[in-house]
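Researcher: Next sequence.
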Amino acid sequence: MTYGSVSPKFQIVIPKSVRKIVPIKPGQKLLIYAKDNVIYLVPQFGLNQLKGLCKGMDVSNVREDHERP
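Model: Next structure:
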């Protein structure tokens, strides 16, 4: 577990141990939200970075719009 602190300007630094695990870059946008007193930071990726994300996904039970009741 890694700890950080909040500056007087409410800025935080993401520890190096976390940056090694989560591929984020300086200037990258993060989705920030809170739920049940927990703050979540979710990196936002461009569409080109999501290419191939669903490769090999089983789509055998996916129906087209015209096939739905």
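Model: Residues 21-53 form one domain. The first strand starts at residue 30 and ends at 35.
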